[in-house]
Amino acid sequence: VFCCSYSHNVASKGKFIAFVSAQAESDNPEAELKPGIDLLGPVDELFFDTYDRYEPTNDPSSDNCFISTVSYK
């Protein structure tokens, strides 16, 4: 859970922007995020978005090519 507010110049005074994220392990990511969303209390608007996650298949110890894991929309 990440939260920022007016003091960060990203929301109206008295409002907050929060992100709840996780690596989905089922076909129902909304249910997986529910415990984190419940921590937020009342919510004005709620958006869900999913991204594919890619991981390198090379062996960095043999080719010295270190590739980060990346998520793409």
TrEMBL record:
Entries under Pfam families matching the protein: GDI
GO cellular component: cytoplasm
InterPro entries tied to this protein: GDP_dissociation_inhibitor (IPR018203), RabGDI (IPR000806)
SUPFAM superfamilies according to UniProt: FAD-linked reductases, C-terminal domain (SSF54373)
Gene Ontology BP term (one): protein transport
Molecular-function GO terms, alphabetical: Rab GDP-dissociation inhibitor activity
Superkingdom field: Eukaryota
Ranges annotated as spanning the membrane: none
Family assignment from sequence similarity: Belongs to the Rab GDI family.
PANTHER family per the UniProt record, alphabetical: GUANOSINE NUCLEOTIDE DIPHOSPHATE DISSOCIATION INHIBITOR, RAB GDP-DISSOCIATION INHIBITOR
Name of the molecule in the record: Guanosine nucleotide diphosphate dissociation inhibitor
